[in-house]
Amino acid sequence: HEPTPTAPSAASGSVKNVLKVALSRRSSMRSSQEIKNFEEAANQGLLQHVSEATHEAVSNELQRCQAWYTRTPVFLLVFVVVFALGVFSMLYPSRFVALIANMAP
């Protein structure tokens, strides 16, 4: 049986379509035998070389699809603020505990 090329040609569609096909192929490789076959094909040079322009286009498309909060420090900043508010909400009221205990006649 003749190996099928895994890298689609430029005439097959846009980078977005190429990514969809590649991701669906990758997610469909569930068995260890399929993964082993893929690794053997890569080692034997059966996979096609990806040009620099294609690699750059795929990288740009993946970066564009990445969630906005992982591209910016907003996620970390929001986590730190929420954590600080949680700690503050536990520590700030504790200074009134002594006043409440001393209210008895």
UniProtKB/TrEMBL annotation:
Top-level taxon of origin: Eukaryota
Transmembrane portions of the chain: 74-92
Keywords, in A-Z order: Membrane, Transmembrane, Transmembrane helix
Name of the molecule in the record: Uncharacterized protein
